[in-house]
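[agent] plan:
  1. take the single chain provided in the ticket
  2. run structure prediction with default settings
  3. attach structure tokens to the ticket
  4. add a short note for the reviewer (M.T.)
[agent] executing step 1
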Amino acid sequence: MLREVDPEIATLIQAEEHRQARKLRMIASENDVSAAVLEATGSVLTNKYSEGYPGKRYYEGQQVIDQVELLAQDRAKALFGVDHANVQPYSGSPANLAVYLAFLQPGDTVMGMSLPMGGHLTHGWSVSATGRWFRSVQYEVRKDTGRVDMDDVRALALAERPKVIFCGGTAIPRTIDFPAFADIAREVDALLVADIAHIAGLVAGGAHPSPVGHAPVITTTTHKTLRGPRGAMILTDAAHAKAIDRAVFPGLQGGPHNHTTAAIAVALKEASQPEFRDYAHMIVKNAQALAEALLERGFDLVSGGTDNHLVLIDLTSKLIGGKPAAQALDRAGIELNYNAVPFDTRKPFDPSGIRLGTPGVTTRGLRPEQMPLIADWMDRAIAAHDNDQALDLIAAEVEELLGSL
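[agent] step 2 finished; step 3 output follows
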């Protein structure tokens, strides 16, 4: 039907499907959803408008939609062990904006991890609305370890007295110390918000400690390691539920995307199965095996390795910037992104590092014994970054491996 109506878009979708199939997709925030999640995402639920919440809608005809959203809520609460789940945020950034609207006034102080150190734009970084409309203070990692020093975080919190503290981020390869953050938040009377967008699937699968019981408010996307559609959730204790719901609707957005809500429900059901726990732990095993293989080939890893799904590489010693390295690797069949590293001296659009992750390749069926091969391809590609013939040869080897799975 699509090809008959719009052959150009149909051709582009087919091209993207082919591209994804023949590449090692190692962008840490990407994954492959199941056929069931994909089917729900493309369902007739996209036709229905549903401002409000189950049982309290502004439009009629919600008999089915209410059941869908309640299922998603109940599955989220059961999977993560929380009192309340709002499954309506359109994506991770609006979910974080809802936190500001619910608990802060413009000009209030918010504390988050500095973006160049691994934090997220919406944790108060200067180019974000969160950094322009609120007073933002940022903690960093130690230069000698590449890790967060909780004594430094405590000292900053005591000096600045933020109303909200964010923990979590977008390029953090180490375990987040939720109990330590919770102690600091209590000491300065701040609300602790855990942004687990990257690690939600690991938390659900028991491969990373949970923030539940430490952070009263938890935000997350529903893709990445959770392997669902592009959406978001906010998980809270009972005391913070009403404020969050009001902030999401009517505070920030109108009707939820019901087809996404259904796909989130499907992904949460999949994440509750025993095999998902195996998957989550395999993500970490693959990342650690890859990190070890990269270290053996002379790569400098931020913090020296990884505890989760993500590896952050400083390419300074390789005498190449992150952007040309990422472009060469893409031609070689290895898709990742260029990324700033802590204390980077290069510009954001041409930083010193690259970021990669193992959720997608783990979904494709790769295992730790294949990680040294990926590290070898990366080493060869970066060394031959200006040699298209050499890069195309690696891409053919990558495609051969993926075709054998």
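[agent] step 4 note for reviewer: The chain has two domains: 38-271, 282-403.
[agent] ticket updated
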